[in-house]
Specification:
GO cellular component, one term: cytoplasm
Number of helices: 9
Largest sheet: 4 strands, mixed
Keywords: Transferase
Oligomer: single chain
CATH architecture of the largest domain: Up-down Bundle
Radius of gyration: 17 Å
InterPro entries: Glutathione-S-Trfase_C-like (IPR010987), Glutathione-S-Trfase_C_sf (IPR036282), Glutathione_S-Trfase (IPR040079), Glutathione_S-Trfase_N (IPR004045), GST_Omega/HSP26 (IPR050983), Thioredoxin-like_sf (IPR036249)
GO molecular function: transferase activity
CATH class of the largest domain: Mainly Alpha
Helix content: 40-55%
CATH topology of the largest domain: Glutathione S-transferase Yfyf (Class Pi), Chain A, domain 2
Number of strands: 4
Protein name: Glutathione S-transferase
Strand content: 5-15%
Length: 207
């Protein structure tokens, strides 16, 4: 039985896993899942009710994109994306954590603005401002950390670049008014370079 990836085509966390699987040349089946649908069965696979969720060959499941991509990187020596040990590994995982944390904040903003369970008067501008502050601070830090380097790890792309690229793609998708390209040309350059790769071009978020 092939691995199955349960996920959504709009989720940046799912996209990160799909890009890693493409870069690692791993065979799998993609199973679309809308966790917001009334008939969703995602809780039977992941008690947190979130995607991505990876169903392995034996039927066991693992979830959380950071856990999944680390498992996938160890499956095959092709295109190693995470350094094995030491400070280099910690740095790459920290950039991934920052990219994911920026997404967490941006998604909270989107939910605050669009969740149908709340009226307009129940939405909190102060909460939105707080979360957007995290997004903007993260963009600044990501751009500063990349600087003039081709990639976060130096001359070769890796997991940090994939995580940041997926985060930037989702911001462009859901927050087109946020001018991160104009403010941070280093990030725009990285994103443009990543979009030339089939793994990114073929996994762009769509509704």
């Amino acid at each position: 039985m092939k691995m199955k990836l349960i996920g959504s085509t709009t989720s940046p966390y799912v996209r990160k896993v799909r890009v890693v699987m493409a870069e690692k040349r791993l065979d799998y089946t993609f199973v679309p899942e809308n966790v917001w649908a009334s008939d969703s069965n995602i809780a039977a696979i992941n008690p947190l009710g979130k995607v991505p969720c990876l169903v392995m060959e034996g039927g066991d499941t693992i979830f959380d994109s950071r856990v999944i991509v680390e498992y996938l990187d160890a499956l095959s020596p092709v295109g190693k994306l995470i350094p094995s040990t030491g400070r280099e590994r910690a740095e790459i995982k920290t950039w991934e954590a920052l990219a994911d944390g920026m997404l967490d904040a941006a998604i909270l903003v989107r939910l605050e603005n669009t969740f149908v369970g709340r009226s307009q008067s129940q939405r909190s501008p102060a909460w939105i401002e707080r979360q957007m502050g995290k997004v903007n601070a993260s963009l600044y830090t990501l751009a500063k950390g990349l600087g003039e380097k081709p990639y976060y790890g130096g001359i070769h792309s890796g997991l940090a670049d994939i995580a940041v690229g997926c985060a930037l793609g989702w911001l462009a998708f859901r927050f087109p008014e946020l001018d991160w390209r104009g403010q941070y040309p280093h990030l725009a350059r990285l994103h443009d370079k990543l979009m030339q790769r089939p793994s990114f071009a073929e996994t762009q978020p769509i509704d």
